[in-house]
Amino acid sequence: MSEQQDTACLDSLIEENRLALHQLQALLGRLTPSAYRHAFGPTGRQSLGKHVRHILDHYDALLAGAGVGSIDYENRQRDERLEAEPEAAVARVIEISAALPCLHAHHSLPLQVRYPVEGASASLVLSTSLARELAFMTSHTVHHMALLGFMAEQLGVALPDGFGVHPSTLRFWQKQAAEENSTRRETA
């Protein structure tokens, strides 16, 4: 891949992540602190705040690891303030979103990701790329946003169309709608 194609690829992946974070920020703006901390499930171990903190922890791991060539998603800060205070989470979302374009500075560094395997004495160390990890982050974030959407709906929080839907699915829906509109115009 040429340098120009590599830059365009990273730009697209960074933008997908920033769009997901923007949706997350919009959701956070709709939540009261009590809704953010509301305990779900039979054990009460799930909350909107815990999922948001988990998402942000992964971005922090990516941002910290990309510059040194080694990402470890298991070794996270787990800042409890981010799961208890929606304002703190909003501030961190804004910081992360602003920092993502800075990843371009590390695009040519060799990159590894640590991956723990049950029963192994040490984590696996896998070769990866910044583009691959940004693609993972989009999928990971959207997966947790789908869960956030389900929980938020249980609390009566209105969500925008497309919240918690992967960009590839949104593109597919748009393509389907365009084809349906085209077919309607042809038959009219």
TrEMBL record:
InterPro entries, per database record: DinB/YfiT-like (IPR034660)
PANTHER family linked: DINB-LIKE DOMAIN-CONTAINING PROTEIN, PTHR39473
Protein name as it appears in the record: DinB family protein
Organism (species): Billgrantia bachuensis
